[in-house]
Amino acid sequence: MYCILTIVRYSKKSGWAGFLSMAIFRLALWRKSSILFWKLMGCGKNGTFDKKPDWRQWALLEVYEKKNPPSVQTPSSILNYWKFFKCEVLTLILEPIEGRGTWDGKEAMGKLPKQTDYDGVVAVLTRATIRLGKLKDFWTHVDGVAKQMPSADGFITSFGIGELPWIKQATFSVWQSKEHMKAFAYNMKEHTEVVQKTRQENWYSEEMFVRFKILESHGSINGLNPLKRKS
Q: What's the pLDDT score for residue 231?
């Protein structure tokens, strides 16, 4: 399998079109039979879990069967919509390599091994559905961890994405290597404590963790392609 993650930024005057797209894009995605799994999502303001949505920035995730060399297969009507509104578009073509968990009860990226010997630039998607009774605990603890991510050794970029504000949240981050990512995840005291709390107090009703090899990146967000800038 491979997947396409597209981050789209609208102008100040056309931010409303991003909100509208969350409804009108569904028909095109439903009709494209080659898409195995897709999600339309909003974005947080600070590149990770965030209570404040960025009304100008939106995301689309598509998963395809890998039969041919990767190429952008996003429905043309969606691509034309972004072009009409002169959106800034960053497209990442990704190959899932390791993972666990489910999204809407599905192994969205297929059945993956928990570990491989891959040792290059790695992207990570961490998503969860937060139990309503645990929302306060979650949001009390994640802010401190999120603020430290950009200064972590080996960090390249991240985007906060989600289906439902406050409840269905995800972070997509890119690191120079798995070792850098693991150092942040397992060696930083604050992050380790939050992970332990999620297990002990059962914060999530569903969660998924996937690592990706980055096959291609095109376009920019805020005038930059962060992968090409730091590669």
A: 42
The reply to whether the predicted model has a pTM over 0.85 is yes
- Both tokens of residue 225? 């392609």
Q: Name the most confidently modeled range: 140-149, 197-206, 220-229.
A: 220-229
| CATH architecture under which domain 2-230 falls | 2-Layer Sandwich (3.30)
**Could you give the C-alpha distances from 40 to 5, 72, 195, in angstroms and in order?**
10, 17, 27
Residue 70 has pLDDT above 60, yes or no: no
Q: Where are the alpha helices (DSSP H) in 101-168?
A: 135-148
Interacting residues of 202 by C-beta distance below 8 A, sequence separation 6+: 131, 134
Run of H or E residues at 82: helix 76-84
Which residues, 6+ apart, have CB-to-CB distance to 23 below 8 Å?
A: none
Nearest to 95 by CA among 206, 182, 5, 208: 5
